[in-house]
Design brief:
Helix content: under 10%
CATH class of the largest domain: Mainly Beta
Shape: globular
Structural class: mainly beta
Oligomer: single chain
CATH architecture of the largest domain: Beta Barrel
Low-confidence stretches: 4-8, 10-19, 103-112
Strand order of the largest sheet: 15-16-17-18-19-20-21-22-23-24-25-26-27-30-31-32
Number of domains: 3
Number of strands: 32
Strand content: over 45%
Distance between the termini: 47 Å
Largest sheet: 16 strands, antiparallel
Radius of gyration: 25 Å
Number of helices: 5
Length: about 600
């Protein structure tokens, strides 16, 4: 695998040397230095261009030789242009700083969205920003992604206690929640109105409800990929707020200021929030706490990040977090969970090739304990590391991304049911994966085939997972699309979907013991959970401001594994297998103008 990756990278690098010129750069907000994602960048008087990614980076390949004018536009900002002298095989970098404008041009917004709709498959994908989350009416007065997600097509939240999300039929354990590349195993607090994510630092969240491509692995239903923003690179600032539910504090600023004349920058951002509902509820919500003891929920969330950005856009982020939750039902049960993580991510932009290199290195741990009156202590722990690298080559009509990932984690589970039968697991697990996807545009067709090879070393199981996405632009206003693939995971939840409320969220890995097919004495062929996705769709621009998206889907879960919590005899199996189908059709009607979004 390493030889294949090295050879492919070498070939791509060499091919860039003989191509036409390359223009790339980063687009920033001039006031804060914050990257601007999804801005439109193009070569004047041509159809050649690109949109910035979530980091504000753009790369335009095969730019015609000679003097060229590059234009940059984004809704809410003044247009910007600059001149470059493009040479064959040369690479030109430019940092662009956009000035916020009081006048928002509808035409700029519409043009940027239409360009992205035509060139990206984007099936079963919803992009969420902090601005959208804060615009959503809330039940508590504090905007939170936990309250925003249920308005998205195909997303259901189980309730206000221990709220978990079900995405297009997939159980919570089948959805992977990422924060800056780190898996968050329990993203919602026991009072389900609140997540562990601070809204003010969310740059964007990609909600992939199915059919996601080969760069994602480890879950069989959906992905929620949340990325935080960098701290203010120009000035110190902060936000403090207090509500009956919680208090919040955010501090950010430069360690080394960003200068438009050149050079890099270093910035930081720190956030914290703490709940007061257990103290304020006897007064504010006396009807819910007639005994005067208050609601039993309490939580504390801390997050910090330091960002180093070089002059050419190369960056390094160091971050860490601690999330704590407690539910104390007086004389009944006491539940505590804690999750901690530290990590680093980088984006390397070499000056001699159109190959961009990214990577992550992180460690996280999760522990939960439940003490019920008259019962033994139940505990579950999971900790592990993740190392990954990816390589992206930008061509004029082709984008190739490939990489590898190494996961290692340990589960420690101790459970004793009401009949006195104990289930224990202490297991070390290793997963090795490699992937490649290619996006190619020709004419009105965009195709995005992908392949992921995943090896579960602890189970000695190999998973071959082809993925595919495609879009056909039938006209400027009508687009057909399709996506599908095979998916696998090696993680089991202790939560039973039949539970009305279950605040004890524990985890196990694939079992060592023999598994049997449902209602059969026939052994299973592997010990993984697997699914097959098939999704189609149509996008219709009903007007300049109204969009309609329709997506029928099916998820065929060919094997799921559940813990037998209530087994009657010690000889009964600890795990059972199940199969099932989730299918439906989602409709999304959106209205957008410069003042409103519905």
């Amino acid at each position: 695998m390493k030889k294949i990756i090295f050879t492919l990278g070498l070939l791509l690098s060499l091919s860039a040397l003989y191509a036409q010129g390359i223009v790339r750069g980063n687009v920033f907000d001039k006031e804060s230095g914050e990257p601007i994602p999804f801005a439109s960048v193009g070569i004047k008087a041509t159809s050649v261009g690109d949109d910035t990614d979530e980091s504000g980076f753009f790369s335009i390949a095969e730019v015609p030789n000679g003097p060229q004018t590059i234009t940059v536009s984004y809704v809410g900002y003044e247009d910007f242009s600059f001149d470059v002298d493009v040479r064959k095989g040369g690479i030109t970098y430019k940092a662009v700083y956009l000035i916020a404008s009081g006048i928002q041009l509808d035409q700029v917004e519409i043009s940027g969205k239409k360009d992205q709709a035509k060139t990206e498959v984007q099936i079963s994908k919803v992009q969420v920003t902090a601005k959208q989350i804060k615009a959503m009416p809330t039940t508590s007065g504090d905007a939170d992604i936990a309250q925003y997600l249920p308005v998205l097509p195909g997303v259901i939240v189980s309730g206000d206690q221990g709220g978990q999300i079900y995405i297009r039929g997939g159980a919570p354990i089948q959805n992977k929640i990422l924060l800056d590349g780190i898996t968050i195993y329990n993203p919602f607090h026991s009072i389900g109105f609140f997540s562990v994510f601070e809204t003010e630092i969310i740059r964007n969240a990609d909600v992939l409800t199915g059919g996601f491509n080969a760069e994602y692995a480890g879950r069989v239903s959906a992905i929620v990929d949340i990325k935080t923003r960098e701290g203010n690179k120009k000035r110190f600032s902060g936000i403090a707020s207090v509500s009956p539910f919680q208090s919040k504090l955010l501090i950010e600023g430069p360690i080394a200021k960003l200068k438009e004349s050149g050079g890099g920058s270093t910035s930081f951002i720190l956030t914290g929030k703490h709940s007061y509902l257990d103290r304020t509820s006897p007064t504010l919500y006396s009807y819910a706490t007639p005994d005067g003891e208050g609601l039993p929920f309490a939580f504390t969330d801390l997050y910090g990040k330091i960002s180093f950005v070089a002059e050419n856009g190369t960056k390094l982020n160091l971050f860490g977090f601690n999330f704590q939750d407690r539910v104390n039902y007086q004389n009944t049960a006491d539940i505590n969970w804690n999750t901690t993580g530290v990590g680093a991510s980088f984006l390397l932009i070499p000056s001699s090739t159109n190959l961009v290199i990214g990577g992550t290195l992180n460690y996280s741990g999760y522990e939960i304990g439940l003490q019920q009156i008259g019962q033994d202590l139940r505990t579950s722990g999971l900790d592990g590391f993740n190392v990954g690298m990816d390589f992206t080559y930008y061509g004029a009509v082709t984008e190739i991304k490939y990489g590898f990932e190494l996961n290692g984690f340990r589960t420690n589970f101790n459970f004793r049911n009401q009949l006195g039968i104990t289930i224990n697991q202490f297991e070390n697990n290793t997963e090795i994966g490699g992937f490649m996807k290619i996006k190619y545009r020709f004419g009105n067709l965009v195709v995005e085939p992908g392949l992921r090879l995943q090896y579960y070393a602890s189970l000695n199981n190999f998973s071959f997972e082809p993925r595919i996405g495609a879009k056909v632009n039938l006209s400027d206003n009508v687009r057909l699309k399709f996506a599908g693939g095979i998916y696998s995971q090696n993680l089991i939840s202790t939560v039973n979907e039949r539970d009305i409320v279950n605040l004890f969220v524990g985890f196990l890995s694939g079992p060592d013991e023999i598994l049997y097919k449902p209602n059969s004495s026939e052994r299973t062929q592997h010990k993984l959970q697997k699914a097959i996705h098939g999704i189609a769709g149509v996008e219709i621009d009903l007007s300049d401001k109204i969009e309609l998206n329709v997506e029928p889907y099916i998820k065929r879960f060919t094997q799921l594994i559940n813990l037998t919590r209530n087994k009657l005899r010690p000889s009964d199996p600890n795990y059972i297998t199940e199969t099932g189908n989730a299918y439906g059709i989602d409709f999304l009607l959106k209205y957008n103008d410069k003042n409103h979004s519905v």
